[in-house]
Amino acid sequence: MKKLILFSLILIVLGIFLSGCTPTTSTNPGEVNVDLGNSTLKGVVNYFDKPINQSANIKVTLIAESEDSPVNLNSYYVITGNNGFYEFKNIPSGTYLLIAQDVNKNYQPANIILTIGENETKTAETMILTKVIKHVIIFRESGSAWNEAGIPETVIGDILSSIGMTQGTGQNQYEYRTLTGENPNLSFNMGDLIIVEGDQPQAFYDIYTTNKTIFDNFVYNGGTIFWIACDMGWASGNFTSTLPGGVTWRDSYDSYNDIVYFEHPITKNFPTQLYGNYASHGGFDNLNSTNIANLMIYVKETTGDGSIQYPTYVEYRYNMGRVLATTSPLEWYVVNGNMSIPEGYSTTYKDLFKLMLVRSIKYIMNLEVSPDIPPSVESVYDQKIKLNLNSHK
Prior knowledge:
14% of the residues lie in helices and 31% in strands. The protein is α/β, with parallel strands linked by helices. The protein is globular and about 60 Å long. It starts with 9 loop residues before the first helix and ends in a 6-residue tail after the last helix.
């Protein structure tokens, strides 16, 4: 399968390339004449919590999809003025990634991909910078989320601890919450990251649906949520509502998933295909008819429904906020999964899924994501977990 050559999204996280960019001469704030073609790409980027006339000091960088593009021989960026406007004049036709960053690093970056034709002027969707993550709230019901498969209840917290966070309710801390207890805590602040774990019991999904407006409004107003949208697992919970922005998925188990973007921080250096029992529990099926923007698709089904390979890993903006969502059972693969190794690698499929989970958390928190694929180290599982290796459904 031919790899799609995307742009170095890893640079969002590393911040190395962008810090060394040198713009060409610009006569107006937010404008640059690339002088390599006859097309123009322009748009606006704002902060989620500031008036639109206070959108200065946002760096917008232009990166071409094609490695051979003359645009990539130099580094083109602009710094916005108060109106948040940017414009790249006289660029070649092609597909581009636009990266918007707060030069003061108080906000998370935003990005968008678009294609422009010969002698075309195109206005991009508005990009919104959201608040840097300072606290993480993990929703996981006791005894759920693959608990019977030997997955530790602290699976997400363990990852957060490894990157320097501690458990608690303050800054640089994470906490666990449930929905099924009496008077669930549904108070969120800007700067919180909500993580909804997969394979929740039916009661969790029912209560979430009852209170979905609270979650939707949190994202709508600038919040960030990571939804592991993997239902119909060991807990048999079936989510029939919608993610923020109205996104839904259809239930369908697929053993294979295809990587769409190989240069994204989450999938950098991954094989073309992932294999597991199962690789995904469904596919997002209404992305073209929802109230969302800045859609990015990272992974998709291999089988699909015979005509469409539905996305299984997406990122999008809902009004001012940000959503990262996957139908892959990422937590299950922390201790379970296929132990075979893709050709040319020294890492098992099990550990690739686990790595995807770790990278996802680091990425959505705007932390450094290493492009390395660590080799697998043989582990000894107890008999219970060995019996569970064939399926997590």
